[in-house]
Amino acid sequence: MTLSGSRVLIIGGTSGIGLAVASAVAERGATPIVASRRRTSVDSALAALPAGAEGATVDLTDDASIAALVQQHAPFDHLAYTAGEPLELVPLADLTADTVRTFFETRFLGAIAVLRAVAPQLRAGGSITLTSGTAADRPGAGWALGASVCGAMNALTRAFAVELAPLRVNAVAPGVVRSPLWSSMSEQDRNAMYEWVAGAVPLGRVAEVEDVALAYVYAMEQVHGTGVVITVDGGTVLA
Ligand SMILES: NC(=O)c1ccc[n+]([C@@H]2O[C@H](COP(=O)([O-])OP(=O)(O)OC[C@H]3O[C@@H](n4cnc5c(N)ncnc54)[C@H](OP(=O)(O)O)[C@@H]3O)[C@@H](O)[C@H]2O)c1
């Protein structure tokens, strides 16, 4: 299926992986519609994308805000959901109900709220691509939260693939990706992490956002795969 002429909504499309997905679909002749919390992120993303791209702010905890986004920018052919925050390393002693709820808010509950509003609006032949991560299959110590949300996204992908068929519902599971997600770390710590990952994975380097964006594009363009989690991790889960 060609993306040319299609409309692709990307929640979290103003930075990192989502912005790379927006650029990739625009290169293929689609109109990306990028949405996230902050107006400044939306404006800088629109400045980086080709003319014709659309953008909006959205509050994923507010159904009315999501409905307004849909009303202003529908119709859509494809949805990619890449909104999320950095993996939080939380040892069991600090794993309170509040910490868990906060972490699930954007990646899991936000995805469900967006699907509730957007899935009925997707045109025939459309698709949904969610975001998981290799933490589900290869957690380290202290990764219970990150691993759980990724595992939950994998399960959600399969369940909605059944419930929403003939829409296709898939997910992309990245390993560590060089993106603004890690900008709260000091440059030194961040580079040390990238170097450590590059040394540990079979492909010998950290993923770039463009590498991962190709998997979202594939999930939209292919026509017979659903309920699939596409791992793009340089072989992390094998190492
Ligand atoms: N980078 C990695 O190594 C990696 C690895 C595995 C999985 N992932 C997952 O992949 C997804 C994308 O990561 P990334 O690297 O592209 O991160 P990023 O560059 O920080 O981008 C995250 C995007 O999500 C938006 N966002 C964050 N919280 C939001 C909220 N509450 N409501 C609406 N939008 C929100 C941000 O914009 P605003 O700030 O304007 O809201 C931004 O556009 C995340 O779910 C991340 O956990 C990333």
How many β-strands, per DSSP? 9
* Overall residue-averaged pLDDT value: 96
Question: What is the N-to-C order of secondary-structure elements (H for helix, E for strand)?
Answer: EHEHEHEHEHEEHEHE
Strand order of the largest sheet: 3-2-1-4-5-6-9
Query: What amount of the residues lies in strands?
Result: 15-25%
CATH homology superfamily name = NAD(P)-binding Rossmann-like Domain
Q: Classify the oligomer.
A: single chain
CATH topology: Rossmann fold
Description:
Helix 6 (187-200) links the parallel strand 7 (177-178) and strand 8 (207-208). This protein starts with 6 loop residues before the first strand and ends in a 7-residue tail after the last strand. The strands form 2 sheets. Strands 3-2-1-4-5-6-9 form a 7-stranded parallel sheet, with helices on both faces. It has a two-stranded parallel sheet with strand order 7-8. It has 239 residues and is of the alpha/beta class. Helix 4 (97-118) runs parallel beside helix 5. It has helices at residues 16-27, 39-48, 63-73, 97-118, 144-163, 187-200, 209-221; strands spanning 7-11, 31-36, 54-57, 76-81, 122-131, 168-174, 177-178, 207-208, 229-232. It has 7 helices and 9 strands. The chain binds NADP nicotinamide-adenine-dinucleotide phosphate (NAP).
